[in-house]
């Protein structure tokens, strides 16, 4: 699938180390940007961090880890969440690198969504009636594709 484990970690590191930069990306960075077929650890860390950042709390690695532990979530890879978050906090990142990483991560999300819509479009084209007109077929395809693509239009 289309994702980057390393890029996700870079963004999470930026949120931990440069929380004041969150306001510059909050309007377009969301949980769906953290994707893995194998684990939800990055998505979970992001959600807990986002809750803290949204209410203006100071970000603390141990507090974030404890909040995740309190959720009683077990991750597929049985990681030690406290060590994992502390490791994220040690990564080197600056504000411009963080902003760039968020934009790159969003590109992956958009590609993933377009890929998914293309698969949905292919399934729909296999199942529609051959009695439809050319225009109806094109309109159906346009609607499936454009509903998703239009939601990602941004000048960032």
Overview of the structural elements:
With 156 residues, the protein is mainly α. 65% of the residues lie in helices and 0% in strands.
Topology:
Blueprint (H helix, E strand, L loop, with lengths): L4 H13 L4 H4 L15 H14 L6 H10 L10 H10 L4 H33 L6 H17 L6
Short description:
This protein is mainly alpha-helical. The protein has seven helices and no strands.
Number of helices: 7
Low-pLDDT residue intervals, each spanning 5 or more residues? none
Helix-strand makeup class: mainly alpha
Q: What's the pLDDT, averaged over the residues?
A: 90
3D shape: elongated
* Portion in helices: 55-70%
Number-wise, the strands total 0
Order of helices and strands: HHHHHHH
Features of the shown structure:
elongated, 156 residues, 7 helices, mainly alpha
């Amino acid at each position: 699938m289309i994702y980057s484990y390393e890029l996700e970690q870079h963004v999470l590191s930026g949120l931990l180390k440069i929380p004041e930069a969150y306001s510059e990306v909050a309007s377009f960075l969301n949980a769906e940007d953290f994707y893995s077929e194998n684990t939800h650890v990055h998505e979970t860390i992001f959600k807990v961090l986002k809750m803290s950042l949204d209410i203006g709390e100071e970000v603390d690695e141990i507090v974030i880890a404890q909040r995740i532990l309190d959720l009683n979530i077990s991750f597929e890879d049985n990681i030690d969440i406290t060590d994992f978050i502390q490791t994220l906090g040690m990564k080197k990142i600056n504000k411009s690198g963080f902003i760039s990483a968020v934009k790159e991560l969003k590109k992956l999300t958009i590609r993933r969504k377009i890929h998914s819509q293309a698969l949905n479009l292919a399934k729909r084209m296999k199942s529609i009636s051959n009695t439809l007109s050319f225009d109806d077929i094109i309109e159906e395809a346009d609607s499936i594709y454009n509903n998703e693509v239009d939601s990602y239009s941004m000048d960032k």
